[in-house]
């Protein structure tokens, strides 16, 4: 999934609203200092900035990966879905529907997003929380990508959002670990989406998209609901719900895969 998300990230500029505009390129340490100054102006504490960005280093491997992945996704829907939705994942998803039936009923009632869509996304993104959620320090990734001038506004906005996640106590620094574009958690939220759509559904006082299944599924539902997803309406290609899923992922192939997987989970 990381490869696919990077291939389409260039289309996702609307996911983050840049909150500061440090000059990209040049000396990396000077760039981080400028970012830190802008973050202070945006209300991030000195303690949070020092914890997150003190000693942060540029990751040339992240840049190399990003350059390899952009524009490389060429599979057809049939080719893609055959590698992503097999009998094992379908059976696993059906087990999750049973295991979390009560939770999913509560989320459906509040957000109006059907359980099979949520479980399909969950399965595709991290194999229901058991798969790879990324192993890279989020601040190292985002500082590296923000310093790079190709999409600096996008990633400067994501960096500010990541600092907000840390400052409000949703995740400790050791758990700010993610993928090659800074995606976090079991359904791979970019930090800006984490801030915008994250829900504390288990009531523990923080939004934990790495460990709390309740927060993960409710936050995913909140994203879709906020963007117009309607319970009981079709969600296949060409429908209004299919368009609502565009905020999740711009790629038609990926949204078709979500819809296909969801249908398989409920025996359609």
Question: Overview of this structure, please?
Answer:
The protein has helices at residues 2-8, 28-41, 46-53, 60-69, 77-84, 87-99, 101-111, 115-126, 138-147, 152-167, 191-197, 213-226, 240-244, 252-265; strands at 136-137, 177-178. It is an all-alpha fold and 268 residues long. The chain has 2 domains: 2-70 and 134-183, Bacterial muramidase (Helicase, Ruva Protein, domain 3, Orthogonal Bundle); 77-132 and 196-265, Lysozyme (Orthogonal Bundle), CATH 1.10.530.10. Strands 1-2 form a two-stranded antiparallel sheet. The protein is globular and about 55 Å long.
Helix and strand topology:
Blueprint: H1 2-8, H2 28-41, H3 46-53, H4 60-69, H5 77-84, H6 87-99, H7 101-111, H8 115-126, E1 136-137, H9 138-147, H10 152-167, E2 177-178, H11 191-197, H12 213-226, H13 240-244, H14 252-265
Antiparallel strand pairs: 1-2
Signal peptide: 1-21
Pfam families: SLT_2 (PF13406)
InterPro entries: Lysozyme-like_dom_sf, MltB-like, MltB_2, SLT_2
């Amino acid at each position: 999934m990381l490869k696919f998300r990077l291939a389409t990230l260039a289309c996702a500029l609307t996911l983050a609203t840049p909150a500061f505009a440090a000059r990209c390129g040049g000396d990396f340490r000077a760039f981080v200092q400028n970012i830190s100054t802008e973050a202070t102006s945006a209300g991030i504490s000195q303690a949070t900035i020092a914890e997150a960005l003190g000693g942060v280093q540029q990751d040339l491997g992240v840049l190399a990966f990003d350059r390899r992945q952009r524009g490389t996704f060429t599979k057809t829907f049939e080719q893609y879905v055959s590698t992503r939705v097999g009998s094992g994942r379908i059976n696993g998803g059906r087990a999750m529907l049973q295991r979390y039936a009560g939770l999913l009923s509560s989320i459906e009632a509040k957000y109006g997003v059907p359980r099979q869509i949520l479980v399909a996304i969950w399965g595709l993104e991290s194999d229901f929380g058991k798969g790879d959620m990324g192993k890279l320090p989020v601040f190292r990734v985002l500082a590296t990508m923000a310093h790079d001038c190709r999409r600096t506004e996008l990633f400067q906005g994501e960096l500010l959002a990541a600092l907000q996640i840390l400052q409000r106590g949703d995740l400790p620094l050791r758990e700010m670990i993610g993928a090659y574009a800074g995606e976090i958690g079991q359904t791979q939220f970019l930090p800006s989406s984490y801030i915008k759509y994250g829900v504390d559904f288990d009531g523990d006082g923080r939004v934990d998209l790495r460990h709390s299944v309740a927060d993960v599924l409710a936050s995913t539902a909140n994203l879709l609901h906020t963007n117009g997803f309607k319970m009981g309406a079709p969600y296949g290609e060409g429908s209004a719900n299919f368009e609502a899923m565009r905020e999740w992922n711009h790629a038609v192939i990926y949204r078709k895969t979500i819809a296909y997987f969801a249908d398989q989970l409920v025996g359609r």
